[in-house]
Amino acid sequence: MMATMLGNEVHGDTSTRAGLYVHVPFCSSICPYCDFSVTLAGEPRRAQWERSLLDEAAMYAGHGLEFDTVYFGGGTPSALKIDRLARVVNGLTQRLQIHSDARFFIEVNPEDVKPESTRAWRSLGFSSVSVGVQALDDPALEFLGRRHTADQARRSVTDLLGAGFDNVSLDLIFGLPGQTRSGWSGQLREAARLGAHHLSCYQLTIHRGTIFGKRKEAGLMGEMGEWPQAELYRLIHEVLGTAGFEGYEVSNFALPGHRSAHNMKYWTGVPYLGLGPGAHSFDGAAKRWWNRRKVRLWQRDIERGCCPVEGEETLTERQRALETLMLGLRTADGVDLASLEKRFLVDVIRSNAVTISDLEAEGLISRRGDLIAPTPAGMAVADALVRAILIEEVEPEPVPVIVPDVRG
Amino acid sequence: MEKTRSFCIIAHIDHGKSTLADRLIQHCGAVEDREFRDQILDSMDLERERGITIKSNTISLEYTARDGETYNLNLIDTPGHVDFSHEVRRSLMSCEGALLLVDASQGVEAQTMANMYLALEHDLEMVPVINKIDLLSANIERVKEEIEEDLGLDSDDAVLCSAKTGEGVEDVLEAIVNQLPPPEGDPDGPLQVLIFDAQYDPYRGAVLLVRVMNGTFRKGQRVLFMHTRAEHTVEELGVLKLKRQAADSLSAGDVGYVIAGIKSVSDINIGDTVTDLAEPADEPVPGYRESKPVVFSSVYPMATDEYGELTKALEKLKLNDAALIYEKDSSQALGFGYRCGFLGLLHLEIVQQRLEREYDLSLLLSAPSVRYRITLNNGEKLWIDNPSMYPDPTTIDTVEEPFIKAAIMMPDRYIGSVMELCRDRRGEETSFNYLSAGRVELTSEMPLAEVLFDFYDKLKSTTQGYGSFDYEMLDYRVTDVVKVEILVNTEPVDPLSQLVHREKARARALHYCDRLKDTIPKQQFKIAIQGAIGGTIIARSTINAFRKDVTAKCYGGDISRKRKLLEKQKKGKKRMKMVGNVEIPQSAFIAVLKSDTD
Lengths: 408, 598
Description:
The complex is a heterodimer. Chain A has 16 helices and 17 strands. By secondary structure, chain A is an alpha/beta fold. Helices cover about 40% and strands about 20% of the residues of chain A. Chain B is an alpha+beta fold. Chain B has 14 helices and 33 strands. Chain B has an eight-stranded antiparallel sheet with strand order 11-10-16-7-8-15-12-13. A six-stranded mixed sheet of chain B has the order 2-3-1-4-5-6, with helices on both faces. In chain B, strands 21, 22, 23, 24, 25 and 26 form a six-stranded antiparallel sheet that branches. The chains are: A alpha/beta, B alpha+beta.
């Protein structure tokens, strides 16, 4: 069954090892903006999740992938009891081929950062931690429905740094109603001062079906206008740039050497396997698939011995080219159009010559030979950049027929 | 013939015409209940969606009346919009009577009046039918008064019904049998067959819908089309049930269809009279009026390789849209297309949508225009309806534009604002007289060009829907016209060029600039939109560049959702035309034609 999913061999760049994502769908409370697969379920359901997750991992045993990043995301992985987390980590190591140098990541909430849990995470092998700070400002935290205070958040960062995590990342949300330039740049400066190695800054997006979504439908709240949003976004590059951070992806900023090795895999076409409800996977070549989002359905499939996959797709060359372009234009490394053309048999350079020089003249992209990369202003409009650049399929060149000269 | 009744239903939009038609069909058992689909006659998607009937459809029903006799009822469906008065006329010519449908809660409205006058012109017997009597807001007494006062019909004859519940539908059928006259005509006289509609059958070619006025029409007969002088042999004829039902002959008073191996559009002229080739009638059926296209616009395929398909589609469409005329045209920016003549702006929009939906084409239309008469300095005279053909202004001596005599009927409380509207539209000799207490007819001599551009919409909103409007062509009068060009990032967009009266040029250019600003999507750079006469800029607007347009999270590996969204957006680009480096969506070309009030 799995062989059909993942193929018998890995087609992608085999020199780069795969990423493993584990979705922990449990939270102590549901944030009003969150549209991930999460639930408030208690210990019995968590025990079932643990069993199903390890059963799902077993389905992929022997598929030939070797992982060098393992990422526990959620939900709230830090809300898992340590013994359960330990059993999952060990269980995965037994069932899948995880490289001895693999880097382990965990997402944590500030209120879960306590001396004993911090020690335990370190001893389980986690070296990178991403803290759901969201804001360093109490009214904003209250608006976002978070259970921690700004002080708790600051303390958690200091404690994690003290515990020896070598990559401490903070999640921040911007674009809250009424947020000011000075308020936002103050938070960014403070995050840098706290000693974070990495920052993920997400714009508040109101999704349908969330509590914020319902408030928006009722006309009680809305997203910030485009121009103020753009201004807050520009400030991130400005403030963090001054503090030595590189904006290496639309929402991600890192001190040198601290890019997220796991998340980079999503953006560069490296294979990854997602376990748990709603998790996404990619075989590194042309196949993407995603799990059932509802915890119950995901679990039921596994208990029946079937693959809990909700959907899958096989990408055409053109779709792969579009993805490569789309993801490349979201990262500072950009995309090399010449190799894109060669890999996917498409034309981009010739048919977009005018567009590309226009975009460069507008200061939205920089260009080195055939490599184009977004500037900070370009990242702010990355979706528009991809829309502007057309990908034309190229007819395969006819094989030249050599006609022998019979006249002698 | 005594047992035949041919009738149509006329009504204001939304007064329940199609629903009543369905109910009559159902009552006569022409269709099994289980296969009954609401509003059977409105077969085109577009009609269902808009809730208005555009194309006439016809059906013959058998009804056994209370007197025990079985009658053959020919129901002829008619469109209900002023643009289509031409099509209504054709349908009316094949009837002896009409059901005048009035909504029991809305009462007599503008279109009811306008259509009734058309029906009177054709000497049709009329039965008022008050529909929707099941509504709580129904006020039957008031509607009866309006029928007496506004329409001058005897309200005692009015039939009460609810097409929705079926109540009174049999009374309607009885009224058709008892109040409408049977057809006249001589089955043994010289053959006179009126073509009142046509359909296209992919296997059989043109299918003509006809009413036999005199004589008997037989299979195999050699016939002559009196207007086009074309000769054909009748391959098949018959009556229209829900499907076509072949017969050996049709005789005076019958309504049915004819297939005569007609493939070429130019052989058909709706309204034409068919007669016997060997023993022709002396005269065609009288009362035929040629359709008069008054709005001209160029139609281009979005993709240049669809030109051939556009050609075929227009040919087929022309078959059952007699009012449409077209000829070859080309544009520097858009390539080959057709210059088309339409009855009005709604007609234009409907033709466009039918071409797009029924023939799966994606189109661009240029700004609509009237036809100008131009005298050059050297005395040469030109007819121009296409701004791209407009000569160098320094070579022009005089320009004349068509004037119409507009007749607007409305309750007298609106007279002040309607006179204001006419003045604003360069109306001359505006006057009015009372038709009856509270109801006036206003006449005004206006340039046709002023009527083209959102006049109906303005009139409708000014009179809250109570104003009805009709017009006749008067003459050509000297005018002062300039060619306004629209530039996008300094590149002229030739389909948006137009000829406008000098006084109106700035306002029109501003309107275009604003509309384009609202419909051209933001791009990665600033877009300047300008209106110009010659080299002089008279209006401008600016579309700012994107400053923020990016999905925050491309995270957790869900790349598919994001890519699919992009694919959808990229697909939308196919419906855009590049002018310079700016993408102009098709919707922008349509939006500029609309009124600024909607």
